[in-house]
Design a protein that fits this description.
heterodimer; A: Aconitase, domain 4; 7 helices; 7 strands; 28% helix; B: 417 residues; alpha/beta; Aconitase, domain 3; 2 domains; 18 strands; globular; binds iron/sulfur cluster
Chain lengths: 166, 417
C-alpha cells in the first residue's frame, strides 16, 4: 500500500517536458539531470516533490522521445508511482523497466495536492481527500512480473532470459 | 482469419501464430542505439549480468544527436559508444555519417525484419516493410544481449490513401493532416498500415516521411507492404537480394479503416506546441518566422532538398529569416552537392550543418531565442524541443519551409510555384 500526495499535471506531458533536450549533456550525470525534472512545466516541482509522492497526469503521459532518462529521474526524485488516464507506449515500457509503477485510472477525479492511497495488489486507488475510489487498469502479465522484480535489469539477472507465459 | 502485416512479421519472427493482443518473444534482426540513449543502455549490460552481444554484425551505434560534439560531457558519451563498438564488434556510424534512421534505411533494414532502436523514430524503417519500433535504453540493451525482445502484437489501423496530390502538396502534409484528425494519441499501441493507390505510386522518400511520423500519433509501427518500389530502392542500395514481398492478407482484421483522398489536401502546418494542432499554411499567413530549418529524419533527404531548392532558386530569402539546412546523411549531402541544391541553399544565405540531428533536438546548432518562431521540417514541435521553452515551433513540408524562408512569414508554397 502506497500513501502520499498527488502532484497534478495536464494532458500530453512529453519527455521533452520531463527532461528537456537542452540538458542532453547531463544524461551521464543523472543526479544533475534530475534537478531539472519537469522544470518547463512546473519549475518548483523538483524541489517540492518528496519521496513517495505521486505524479498524477491526464492522457498520453510521456509522449515523444524514447529517452529513458525521463523515467529514471522521476524515480530518482522519489516518486512512487505515476497515475495517468493513458500513457505513451515507449514511456510506459521504460517506466516499468526502471521499476516505476505507471497506473492507468480516471485521474480527472484526483485534485492537485490530494492525499492518495494506492493498493497495487488490490488494483485500486483511494483519494483520501475527496473519498473517490478508482479502479486501476490491468497490464500484461509480463510487465507485472518485470515490475515485481523491480525492473527489467533485476528481472533478467534473476531469469537470464524472458520467461513469458501467454 | 488473415493477418495484418504486423501479425505476419511478428508471427514469423516469434515462431508462433500471433494475433493482435498476444505477447510474443520475437527474434530481433537489427538493434541500434544513438549517442543520447546509448550510454545508459551500455551501462545496463554489465548490470544485467549479460555483458555480451548476440549478433554484433547487426548491432549499430550512431553518433548523430550531437555531432560533432559541442561539449566535454557529450564527447565522453561518444567515447563510451566508440569503445564498446571496438570491444564488442558492434558497428559504429561516427559523426558526419548522418541520422540513425536515415542510415538504417540506407544501409541496414530489410522487409520482414524486426528492428528495435533506442529512439522513437525507429518506426521510419516500417516504410521498407520491417516491423521497426522505438524502445528505451534498457529494452534495447537486453535486445542487444539476447537477440530477442518481448512485444505485444498491436492492433492495426489500415490507412487507405487515394487520389493525386496537388502540386505543392506532399506526404508531409498528408501526415500532419492525419495526425491532426486522429490526435497525438490517436493510434497509441496500434500499428498504422498504409496502403492504397496513392501509396503504391509513392516514392520511398515520401514513404519514409509517413512511417517516420507514425509515432507522432502514438503508433508502435508505421508499416508499408514491400513492392517494386521497395525492391528498386534496395537494389539501388546494393541490397536487392534482401528483397522479399511482405504484405497483409486480404482478409486481415483491422480495428479501424481510415480512408483519405489526398486530392483536396492543402499545405498543412502544425502549430506550437503540439503536432496535432494543425492549420492550413494559408491560414497562418502573416505569422513572422525568424528561422527556417530544413532537415531531420522526416524531411532531410535528397527529394526534400530538391523540392526546397526548386523554390529557393528563383527567389531571394527574406533577410531577417535565417535558413538552416541539415542533410539526413553524408550521402544525401554528396548527392545534393552534385545536383546543385547545396549551392542554391548557400547562395540564398543558408547555413549548412553537418549531416545529423542538428537543430532538431535542442542540443546545439540552431537553438532558438526567447519568443522566436521557427518553421521546421521536423516531426515534433513540443515546447522546448529546439532548446528553448520560450520559443515556438511550426512544422511543415520542405516546400512550405522554403517558401516561408522567402516570404519571412508562413505562406502557402503554392504562391511561389
Ligand atoms: S532528426 Fe530529430 S527526430 Fe530525427 S532522430 Fe534526430 S533528433 Fe530525433
Amino acid at each position: 500500500m502506497l500513501r502520499a500526495r498527488a502532484f497534478k499535471f495536464g494532458d500530453n506531458i512529453s519527455t521533452d517536458d520531463i527532461t528537456p533536450g537542452r540538458w542532453f549533456h547531463l544524461r551521464s550525470n543523472l543526479p544533475e539531470l534530475a534537478k531539472h525534472l519537469m522544470e518547463d512545466v512546473d519549475p518548483s516541482f523538483a524541489s517540492r516533490v518528496k519521496p513517495g509522492d505521486f505524479i498524477v497526469a491526464g492522457k498520453n503521459f510521456g509522449l515523444g522521445s524514447s529517452r529513458e532518462h525521463a523515467a529514471v529521474i522521476i524515480k530518482m526524485a522519489g516518486v512512487s508511482a505515476i497515475l495517468a488516464k493513458s500513457a505513451a507506449r515507449i514511456f510506459f515500457r521504460n517506466a516499468i523497466n526502471v521499476g516505476l509503477p505507471l497506473l492507468i485510472c480516471d485521474t480527472d477525479r484526483i485534485g492537485d495536492g490530494d492525499e492518495l492511497e494506492v493498493d497495487l495488489e488490490g488494483g485500486r486507488v483511494r483519494d483520501i481527500t475527496n473519498g473517490a475510489e478508482l479502479p486501476l487498469g490491468k497490464f500484461p502479465d509480463v510487465m507485472l512480473r518485470i515490475l515485481e522484480e523491480g525492473g527489467l535489469i533485476p528481472y533478467i539477472k534473476k531469469y537470464g532470459d524472458f520467461e513469458i507465459r501467454s | 482469419m488473415g493477418k495484418t502485416l504486423a501479425e505476419k512479421i511478428l508471427s514469423e519472427n516469434s515462431g508462433v501464430d500471433a494475433q493482435a493482443g498476444d505477447i510474443v518473444i520475437a527474434k530481433v534482426d537489427l538493434a541500434f542505439l544513438q549517442n543520447g540513449t546509448g550510454p545508459l543502455a551500455l551501462r545496463q549490460l554489465p548490470a544485467s549480468g549479460l555483458d555480451r552481444v548476440a549478433n554484433p554484425e547487426r548491432v549499430i551505434f550512431f553518433l548523430d544527436h550531437a555531432a560533432p560534439s559541442p561539449s566535454r560531457e557529450l564527447s565522453n558519451d561518444h567515447l563510451i559508444l566508440r569503445d564498446f563498438a571496438t570491444r564488442s564488434g558492434a558497428q559504429l556510424c561516427d559523426i558526419g555519417e548522418g541520422i540513425c534512421h536515415q542510415l538504417i534505411v540506407e544501409s541496414y533494414a530489410n522487409p520482414g525484419e524486426v528492428i528495435v532502436g533506442a529512439d522513437s523514430h525507429t518506426v521510419t524503417a516500417g516504410a521498407l516493410g520491417a516491423f521497426a519500433t522505438g524502445m528505451g535504453s534498457t529494452d534495447v540493451a537486453i535486445a542487444i544481449a539476447l537477440g530477442k525482445t518481448w512485444l505485444r502484437v498491436p492492433e492495426s489501423f489500415r490507412v487507405v490513401v487515394s487520389g493525386s496530390f496537388e502540386k505543392g502538396v506532399y506526404a508531409k502534409d498528408l501526415m500532419l493532416h492525419l495526425i491532426g484528425s486522429i490526435g497525438a494519441d490517436g493510434a497509441t499501441y496500434r500499428s498504422l498500415e498504409f496502403c492504397g493507390e496513392t501509396v503504391e505510386k509513392m516514392s520511398m522518400s515520401e514513404r519514409f516521411t509517413l512511417a517516420n511520423m507514425a509515432v507522432e500519433a502514438g503508433a508502435k509501427a508505421g508499416l508499408f507492404p514491400s513492392d517494386e518500389t521497395t525492391h528498386r530502392y534496395l537494389e539501388s542500395r546494393g541490397r536487392g537480394d534482401k528483397f522479399r514481398a511482405v504484405g497483409p492478407d486480404p482478409d486481415a482484421n483491422y480495428e479501424q479503416i481510415i480512408e483519405i483522398n489526398v486530392a483536396g489536401l492543402e499545405p498543412t502546418v502544425s502549430m506550437p506546441h503540439s503536432v496535432d494542432k494543425i492549420a492550413l499554411a494559408k491560414e497562418l499567413k502573416g505569422e513572422r518566422i525568424q528561422q527556417v530549418f530544413i532537415g531531420t529524419c522526416t524531411n532531410g533527404r535528397l527529394y526534400d532538398f530538391a523540392v526546397a531548392a526548386a523554390i529557393l532558386k528563383v527567389k531571394r530569402r527574406y533577410p531577417a529569416t535565417r535558413l538552416i539546412i541539415a542533410p539526413a546523411s553524408r550521402e544525401v549531402l554528396i548527392q545534393a552537392m552534385a545536383f546543385g541544391y547545396i549551392q542554391t541553399f548557400l547562395e540564398v544565405g543558408a547555413v549548412l550543418l553537418p549531416p545529423g540531428c542538428g537543430a532538431c533536438v535542442g542540443v546545439h546548432q540552431g537553438v532558438l531565442g526567447d519568443g522566436e518562431r521557427c518553421l521546421s521540417t521536423a516531426n515534433r514541435n513540443f515546447r522546448g524541443r529546439m532548446g528553448n521553452p520560450e520559443a515556438f515551433i511550426y512544422l511543415g513540408s520542405p516546400a512550405t519551409a522554403a517558401a516561408t524562408a522567402i516570404a519571412g512569414e508562413i505562406i502557402d508554397p503554392r504562391e511561389m510555384l
